[in-house]
Amino acid sequence: MSQLLYEGKAKKVFATDDPNILRVEYKDDATAFNGAKKAVFPGKGKLNNAICSKLFDVLKAKGIPTHFVERLSETEQRVKAVEIIPIEVVVRNVVAGSLSKRLGIEEGTPMDRSSIIEFYYKNDELGDPLINDDHAKMIHIATDAEMADIRKQAQAINSVLTTLFDGVGITLVDFKLEFGKLKSNGDIVLADEISPDTCRLWDKETHEKLDMCVRRNIADLPETYEKLLSRLGDI
Ligand code: TMP
Question: Are residues 127 and 170 in the same domain?
Answer without folding.
Answer: yes
